[in-house]
Amino acid sequence: MTGPGATEEAANEQPIAATDWQHHAATLRLPADPAQTRLIEISLALAPRSRWRRGLPSVTLTASGQAPLTYSLEARRRDQRIAWRLPPCTTEVTLSLALSGARLTGAPQARCHAQPAIEGPILIVAPHPDDAEIAAGGLYTDHAESVHLVTLSCGEQLKGLKRQYLSGLDDDLDSAVRRKAEWRRWNVFATPLLSGIPPERSTLVGVPDGAGWALVHDGIAQRPVIALSEARRFNHLALPPIRGERLERDDVVAALRQLIDTLQPVTLLVTDPEFDPHPDHRAASLALALALDGSRHRPRTVLLYANHYRDAFPPGPAFQPAWMPPAEIAIERLFTPAPTPLAWPLSTEMQKHKALLLDAMSDLSPRAGWPQRRRRARRANFVPTFARERDPYFQAAIRSTELFRALPCDAFVAAWRGRNDAC
């Protein structure tokens, strides 16, 4: 658990006075707070790089009395950020930055964020199987005794027969789609068992894969490719039945509302509508806000996570600290004030456990051939030293921290309610 945190963002964020950044080093002075875990956000202004320069730039942060941490940076973005968890009781720390393949054009700017508490029960809303594991496999393992997972879609979408998990298994696309749904439905209930979360605490709603935004935002009813009786076959918590053969927006909202009222979570996790452009992911966030708007129970905190980014992908190999997306790639500004960044630490052993969770997800486990691996390495601008044959998410997701953005539940609901075209 993090320490007790304030619920008002204004109290959670403050600039830090640095003595100077001579030779990329500064002493940061902070008010004493023995119980509070805090996060230091450092903004870097970098000189433009030649487009022909190979490899990723990086910055190594060294704090007095602690092992150095290396952060990979994007190759050609000028404004970038890194996050570092400050130990409790710290009132003064000397930080030094060593840059490789990059040059600062101005003094770094540091801000301090108090880390809100993560308290159970916890309800994690995932658009597809594997989204919760990619974003929060470490956090949900650490809180396994109080976590319930709800997955909206079976993730059955298949672009062609060549994309089957087992080549040649099915001869027609309809059969292959149903097979993929069956496979990934099993993932929803089986994979969390590796972290001690029993199937009784996983629930599948059955939203058609790829149709989430049209269904939730536009209100266009969808005919499920996979019958809801099949999608929900292993659910232990009954969801409200649908009226007819088509799934309506209200059916999804009612399912989430019933889970909230039944489980009464204190903390919610859902996809970040400001940074994650995937339509199904944005739909999950909106559906949760609509469900909360009419719920009898009001959780305390919402943690936002992003598994996709607009024109960007977390740079660098696995086992580094989590990447902080630059504000300029946000899809929109929905929350005022901005949510508080929160970094959940993962031990080396927990990072390896998270690799096991991801590999247990069928969509992430296929191995790539050597030509495909070479193409991925060229695009990524680095050669991975771990899971080279796996999906690039292994590099992006298996980090020494998991990054979220925290805000009060009321602020999350109010922001969606105030959006001009929100339902």
Can you tell me about this structure?
It is a single chain. This protein starts with 8 loop residues before the first helix and ends in a 5-residue tail after the last helix. The chain has eleven helices and 16 strands. With 423 residues, the chain is α+β, with helices and mostly antiparallel strands. The model is unreliable at 1-13 (pLDDT under 50). The strands form three sheets. A seven-stranded mixed sheet has the order 12-11-10-13-14-16-15, with helices on both faces. The chain has a five-stranded antiparallel sheet with strand order 2-3-8-5-6, with no helix packed on it. Strands 1-9-4-7 form a four-stranded antiparallel sheet. It has helices at 9-12, 131-142, 173-190, 212-216, 228-231, 249-263, 279-293, 348-359, 370-380, 393-397, 409-418; strands at 13-15, 17-18, 25-29, 38-45, 58-63, 69-72, 79-86, 92-100, 109-114, 122-126, 147-153, 202-207, 267-271, 301-305, 340-345, 401-408. The longest helix is centred in the middle third of the chain and has 18 residues, at 173-190.
Strand order of the largest sheet: 12-11-10-13-14-16-15
Largest sheet: 7 strands, mixed
Separation of termini?
Answer: 35 Å
Mean pLDDT: 89
For this entry, what is the oligomeric state of its chains?
Answer: single chain
Question: Which structural class fits the helix and strand makeup?
Answer: alpha+beta
Number of strands: 16
Q: What would the principal axes of the Cα set say about the shape?
A: globular
User: What's the helix count?
Assistant: 11
Radius of gyration: 22 Å
User: Any low-confidence stretches, pLDDT <50, length ≥5?
Assistant: 1-13
Percent of residues in helical segments?
25-40%
- Beta-strand share of residues: 15-25%
Order of helices and strands: HEEEEEEEEEEHEHEHHHEHEEHHHEH
